[in-house]
Design goal:
Elements lengths: L2 H22 L5 H6 L6 H12 L2 H14 L9 H20 L5 H9 L1 H33 L4 H22 L1 H29 L2 H10 L28 H18 L1 H8 L4 H32 L9 H9 L4 H37 L5 H18 L4 H5 L4 H25 L6 H23 L6 H4 L4 H20 L4 H11 L3 H8 L18 H19 L2
Length: about 550
């Protein structure tokens, strides 16, 4: 890194952080902090969702995972992302918005009861702070492998980044985060384009990659190395898992990310109309696809250039160091730092909102003035961001960062995702929530124990490996919900909503009642045909599916 590179990094990211401080000055009420006054336009929210969806851990870990396992991973960022984004923006978020909910966990209490709300809050905090740990570790790899900084210096920089993100996020809330994320997304896109083109030239283009991989022979599992060029070429850790099952697993993970994860749901709830809500999700998913396919392609190109490179998660900074000159290195580093900060602020704001509304105000302090809860949320933001460091020892033990993350998802995240589906699309009894999530989590713990700790002799891999665990987790959650509904009867909307309103009092009730109804769309009469979200979603999903199976399957 030259002086010019460091100037680029500091100017681009320092300017964005300074802009965040300027924006934060107008935030005073909880409606400002949690929902941005419900004034956000679709394109700003979409850019923010893009920047949050693609964090620095994704960039580094996706490259390392595709280097080792191939193109199968793009399924989660294409079909999985569309499945989750459409489910969230077309079904879940509108239902939450109409009911005046501020968080997705709040919706779960209205549907399934207080125990699911609180459990959901803690699951989200665990789920997303583990991802925060991945981001912290990927920044560390960037600083030590690419910038050749000493560990102490690297950790000092990382702590500084987290502190900066915590300050302007805790001060400004959702609107500040959305607008800074939108700018950071542009920086990320430029940085990714620079390194992609550099590695593309070094590998001789796609024809050079195909030729090198064809000449590389077979992998350890006996399959040709060239199999990594196709999604169907990956058969799981043991080589025997169906690629269709892996595709299904990625779609489940994508669906869970967009629903269980309040980071994205919070943005949708801050839009000015229901039309903006749907368009924001479609825009955010669509512009994420080129970046994620590009990251996966860099991993494949890296495999053709350095077939024995180890560890895979260090590949991205290695390629950047090797093939980028002065100025361009700074742009790439600025993009990765922007990705880190954009997700730090997103996680800090969303998880602190969940803690304040779904734990603190619901269980501990129920009826204080609005300013009190804004202060609590600001302090919670700082604590939440600090929790990510606790996962570093676990992440370091895994072959790739992504595998560390995927190991934990079937335990609680997938059962919780299943509850959202059951809540919206079925009339299962409210008690089906706690019975379903406990049965799904019990299976998840057993499968995790078999995979990671004991390797129980009587448990088969088709029942517990990391890919089959995802649909099995949904199945067991569903079985528990069905049994509960057979015992206690079906869901009665009026009774449950009345019970929820009676149970939620004080500040929570006041803030819900103060929310004005969200308009359907911003147009004078009806939505123009070509701007109808349903038609656009159908077109995008169809085109993406055709391209995916034509070029990558």
């Amino acid at each position: 890194m030259t002086f010019l590179d460091w100037i680029l990094v500091l100017l681009l990211n320092g300017g964005i952080v300074l802009f965040g401080f300027v924006l934060a000055r107008g935030t005073t009420t909880s409606q400002d902090w949690f929902l941005g006054k419900r004034s956000l336009l679709w394109w700003t929210v979409g850019l923010s969702m893009f920047a949050t969806n693609i964090d620095n851990a994704d960039i580094v870990s996706l490259t390392g995972t595709s280097f080792r396992e191939g193109f199968h991973i793009i399924a989660v960022h294409t079909l999985g992302a569309f499945a989750g984004g459409i489910l969230a923006a077309f079904f879940l978020a509108p239902a939450m918005s109409r009911a005046g909910h501020f968080t997705n966990a709040e919706y779960l209490e209205a549907r399934f009861g207080i125990s699911i709300r609180v459990l959901s809050a803690f699951i989200q905090i665990q789920y997303r702070t583990s991802m925060l740990g991945l981001m912290i570790w990927s920044v560390y790899l960037l600083f030590t492998k690419f910038l050749a900084l000493e560990p102490v210096t690297s950790w000092s920089f990382i702590v500084g980044l987290v502190i900066l993100a915590a300050i302007y996020t805790s001060w400004g809330g959702l609107k500040t985060v959305v607008f800074t994320d939108a700018i950071q997304g542009v920086v990320m896109f430029l940085g990714m384009a620079v390194i992609f083109l550099a590695v593309w030239r070094a590998s001789g283009g796609w024809s050079g990659v195909v030729e090198n991989l064809a000449a590389a022979g077979d992998q350890e599992n006996g399959r040709p190395v060239s199999d990594i060029l196709r999604m169907r070429g990956y058969g799981g850790d043991d080589g025997t898992t169906s690629p269709w099952l892996i595709l299904t697993g990625w779609i489940i993970i994508g669906g869970g990310y967009w629903t269980v994860n309040h980071t994205q749901m919070m943005r949708l709830l801050g839009t000015r109309t229901l039309w903006d809500m749907k368009m924001a999700a479609l825009f955010g998913v669509t512009i994420s696809i080129p970046i994620m396919v590009g990251c996966a392609s860099i991993g494949i190109m890296g495999r053709s250039l350095f077939p024995d490179f180890d560890p895979p998660d260090a590949l991205y900074p290695h390629l950047a160091d090797l093939y980028l000159g002065p100025g361009l290195k700074g742009l790439v580093v600025a993009g990765i730092v922007a990705a880190a900060i954009s997700t730090f602020d997103s996680m800090g704001s969303s998880l602190s909102a969940v803690f304040t509304r779904d734990v603190y105000a619901r269980l501990l302090v129920r009826n204080r003035e609005d300013a009190h809860y804004v202060r609590v949320t600001r302090w919670a933001t700082i604590v939440i961001l600090g929790l990510g460091f606790a996962y570093i020892p676990f992440i370091r033990e895994k072959d790739t960062m992504l595998k560390a993350f995927l190991t934990l998802i079937p335990v609680f995240v997938t059962p919780l995702f299943t509850l959202y589906l059951l809540g919206v699309f079925t009339k299962c009894h409210p008690r089906a929530g706690i019975v379903g999530i406990l049965s799904g989590a019990l299976y998840g713990v057993v499968a995790l124990w078999d995979r990671e700790i004991a390797d129980v002799a009587w448990l088969e891999s088709w029942f517990t490996n990391r890919w089959v665990a995802l649909p099995w987790s949904m199945v067991f959650t569903g079985i528990g919900a069905v049994v509960a509904t057979l015992i206690w009867g079906s869901y009665r909307l009026e009774e449950k909503e009345a019970a929820f309103v009676e149970a939620e009092s004080g500040w929570l009730e006041r803030t819900r009642e103060e929310l004005a109804p969200l308009p359907e769309h911003p147009f004078p009469a009806t939505v123009p045909v070509l701007l109808r979200p349903g038609l656009i979603a159908t077109f995008l999903v169809t085109v993406t599916t055709l391209l995916l199976f034509a070029f990558f399957w």
